């Protein structure tokens, strides 16, 4: 685990991704300090361009886009991270139990996983949201978490099946360790890179899925999030009227959190599969090759 963390911090792209994620999370955490105004307050003219007073401009209702962007990040990031964690926990638990237990337990859990997996997620989310009507962040989080765990479960199950017959697992069973200890002490630590990949991918998916539902009008219009900002901007024909800032701010926030998580995910891929670390190895090889050519040229 410590070696994985060391590799994570040694990678420039991972550090850059962490900086982006931490900056956005700090912005959301200290929203009352850096954006003290109420996000629903009317503070300017309709669709006022960015100025010194309103750095991100205003909406059609004269609300400050910067204040809405900062306060909206709280709900969007909270739902994204909480849903991603829930998806990862559900998928990891099901995949770990199915892969280790085998037999009927594996068959039953694999059947349930495949049943949910074959259903297109976004259409299912839209269908469930349409039955529920206008849904708040908690309902959106529950809908996404309960329909998006199968991918992680399949990956975890496959890796667990590959590890359950290894010598260290067999030895643990032979000395009488209980099943829960084998799962959480012997197997789970070896699955951490895979769980990290699943977690990051689940958070990205959760942010995009939440934004999609809210953009389509299934979110709570009274709740300020990046998705409802896009929904309101669409309803006010912001692009047609040239008010690009009304859509640009929430879109930039979604793009930034996706970029930061993707940069971290690349490093998790390298931890899980060391063969992907070709960049540093190739750089070292080219440097050594140039040094060898110089030495050969000097010898001539």
CATH class: Mainly Alpha
Question: In one word, what is the shape?
Answer: globular
Q: Structural class, from secondary structure content?
A: mainly alpha
Count of DSSP H/I helices: 14
The largest pleated sheet is described as: none
**How much β-strand is present in the residues?**
under 5%
Rounded to an integer in angstroms, the radius of gyration calculated over CA atoms is 24 Å
Number of strands: 0
**CATH homologous superfamily grouping:** MetI-like
Strand and helix order: HHHHHHHHHHHHHH
Return the CATH architecture: Orthogonal Bundle
Question: What is the mean pLDDT?
Answer: 83
Amino-to-carboxy terminus distance: 49 Å
Describe this structure in words.
- With 300 residues, this protein is mostly helical.
- It has a single domain (2-299), classed as MetI-like fold (Orthogonal Bundle), CATH 1.10.3720.10.
- Helices cover 74% and strands 0% of the residues.
- The protein is built from 14 helices and no strands.
- It has helices at 2-10, 12-29, 31-34, 65-101, 103-117, 121-132, 137-147, 150-163, 167-174, 179-187, 192-215, 226-235, 244-272, 278-299.
- Helix 12 runs antiparallel to helix 13.
- It is globular.
- The mean pLDDT is 83.
What is the compact description of this entry?
With 300 residues, the chain is mainly α. The chain is 74% helix and 0% strand. It has helices spanning 2-10, 12-29, 31-34, 65-101, 103-117, 121-132, 137-147, 150-163, 167-174, 179-187, 192-215, 226-235, 244-272, 278-299.
């Amino acid at each position: 685990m410590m070696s994985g963390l060391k590799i994570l911090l040694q990678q420039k792209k991972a550090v850059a991704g962490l900086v982006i994620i931490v900056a956005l999370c700090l912005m959301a955490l200290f929203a009352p300090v850096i954006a003290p105004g109420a996000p629903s307050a009317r503070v300017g003219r309709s669709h006022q361009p960015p100025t010194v007073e309103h750095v991100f401009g205003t909406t059609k209702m004269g609300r400050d886009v910067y204040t809405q962007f900062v306060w909206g990040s709280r709900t969007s990031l909270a739902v994204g991270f909480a849903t991603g964690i829930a998806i990862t926990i559900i998928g990891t638990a099901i995949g770990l139990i199915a892969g280790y237990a085998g037999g009927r337990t594996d068959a039953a859990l694999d059947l349930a996983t495949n049943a949910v997996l074959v259903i297109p997620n976004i259409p299912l989310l839209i269908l469930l949201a349409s039955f529920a009507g206008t849904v708040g962040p908690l309902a959106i989080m529950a809908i996404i978490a309960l329909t998006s765990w199968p991918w992680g479960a399949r990956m975890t199950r496959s890796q667990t099946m590959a590890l359950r017959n290894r010598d260290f697992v067999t030895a643990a069973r032979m000395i009488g360790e209980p099943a829960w200890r084998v799962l959480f002490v012997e197997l789970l630590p070896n699955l951490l890179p895979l769980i990290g990949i699943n977690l990051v991918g689940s958070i990205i998916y959760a942010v995009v899925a939440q934004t999609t539902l809210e953009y389509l009008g299934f979110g709570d219009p009274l709740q300020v999030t990046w998705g409802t900002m896009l929904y309101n901007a669409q309803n006010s024909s912001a692009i047609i009227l040239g008010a690009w800032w009304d859509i640009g701010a929430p879109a930039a926030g979604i793009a930034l959190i996706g970029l930061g998580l993707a940069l971290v995910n690349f490093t998790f891929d390298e931890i899980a599969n060391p063969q992907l670390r070709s960049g540093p190895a190739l750089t070292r090889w080219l440097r050594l090759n140039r040094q060898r050519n110089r030495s050969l040229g000097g010898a001539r």
